[in-house]
Amino acid sequence: MQFLDDSLLPQNQDKLVITVAPYGPEWAPEDFPEDIPVTMEEQVQKAVDCYNAGATVLHLHCRELNGHGSKRLSMFNEMIDHIRSRVPEMIIQVGGSISFAPEGEEDGAEAKWLSDEVRHMLAELTPAPEQVTIAVNTTQMNIMDLMDEAEYGQTTLANPALYQAYREMVVPAGPQWVEEHLRRLTGAGIQPHFQLTCMPDMETVERLIRRGHYKGPLNLTWVGIGGGFDGPNPANFMEFIRRAPDGSTVTLESVMGNVLPINTIAIALGMHTRCGIEDTIYDPHGNKMGSVAQIEQLVRISRELGREVANGEEARAIYKIGTQYNSTEETLARLGMAPNRERGQLAIPIREVA
């Protein structure tokens, strides 16, 4: 992205889109009972409360009544339907790391569960969410890397087995799966939101676009959580922002104590933010802080800086929800990227346009 002399002035920036991740699948309800919803009504009400506080994108996971993360497609369908009826303006973004389990005894169900095919079931959600997050390139995702014992020691993550499971977690996202997942999501009218860990991921997304595997608006999140991803070094996310196409949007995401400072920088730069208990359950002083309070904090900071917060309709326009493009050439042009090189063409192709 290019920064002009007046790019830091809030009147020249998009309104702030706040994504909230209020379901915190890594935590057990007893870790933060005041803020971890368990029943269906509590989970739906949490979405309503987050929207009323100023968040317009809901990063969605579901819990069963026993507090465990749900693997039932039917439960996700039910929750999306309820949230859609209560807050129709909110952008529902389903987390792409979900593994659905078979609900019946039909032949082949278990085999389907054990294959990559299960993750493609996100394209079968009914009603369809506006977005599903997607990773590219298989990556280590050690979410414990930037946490210290003072943060997790009094939670269920201190359980040695759970600690090791999250420490050794890997996000599988090989080329064949990514291409097929993009095809199915866009075929279902669902916009992929790319969750990227480092510059090689950004370069992979550009190749996917140039080779025609994705034709649509480009909404990116830089995920700076360490443990195989970029760490929260400002040089990392500034390079990511610098190389993001001019026509894309960038959200900055981090973990625990880094969430607030990185979100504050994102607001000042004209980027977008993500908060919620999936990212941190603490304020800067080490006190428990719920998702709604985190949203309200970002709203206050943004307004202090003179930048207004997007409502649901404005967030949909910024993210271009419902838009797809007809060709690779149109996609490159809409995103402000240089066209593909024609055979025999020399130098940088954009010079030919000039």
UniProtKB/TrEMBL annotation:
This is Transposase. Keywords: Metal-binding, Transferase, Zinc. It comes from the Bacteria. Its cofactor is Zn(2+). The keyword Nucleotide-binding does not apply. It holds the Pfam family BKACE. It comes from Blastomonas fulva.
